Amino acid sequence: MTPTRTLLVLLAAFVAPSLFAADAAAIWKKQCAECHGKDGRGDTKIGRKRYISDLTNPELQAKFSDEQAAHSIKFGLKDAKGNVIMEPARRVSDQEVEALVAYVRTLKK
Ligand code: HEC
């Protein structure tokens, strides 16, 4: 590998994840905080109406896997009666969904 190439690979490895993290925080603010709240507690108007769970609670976080969380973010969630309680995230790539899952895990207190 040429030195320039090595540098590019290093950049991709170290800079890209932090870019995704920044993306996830921005998406969270735009698309998720309305219900879940900025801090994930769900102490919002819609959150209270939908009996949203507190994502800062480690016990709640243990109840869903990363795969489940990714699925919910991509496809949304319905209640037992089939009503949509969480809309699917809009215009997000698979990488952004993954970054959002990682972001959700950081909300745990
Ligand atoms: C319209 C309100 C609403 C929006 C917007 C919303 N959610 Fe949710 N979310 C809910 C509700 C309601 C639940 C399920 C009830 C609960 O919290 O127990 C939920 C559950 C979750 C869960 C738990 C996963 C599971 O399968 O149980 C995760 C993770 C999550 N949301 C992430 C997100 C992310 C990330 C976004 C933004 C892309 C988002 N939510 C946007 C309402 C919303």
Automatic annotation (TrEMBL):
Keywords: Heme, Iron, Metal-binding, Signal. One of its GO terms (molecular function) is metal ion binding. Residues 19-108 form the Cytochrome c domain. It comes from Opitutus terrae (strain DSM 11246 / JCM 15787 / PB90-1). It holds the Pfam family Cytochrom_C. Residues 1-21 form the signal peptide. This is Cytochrome c class I. Coiled coil: none annotated.
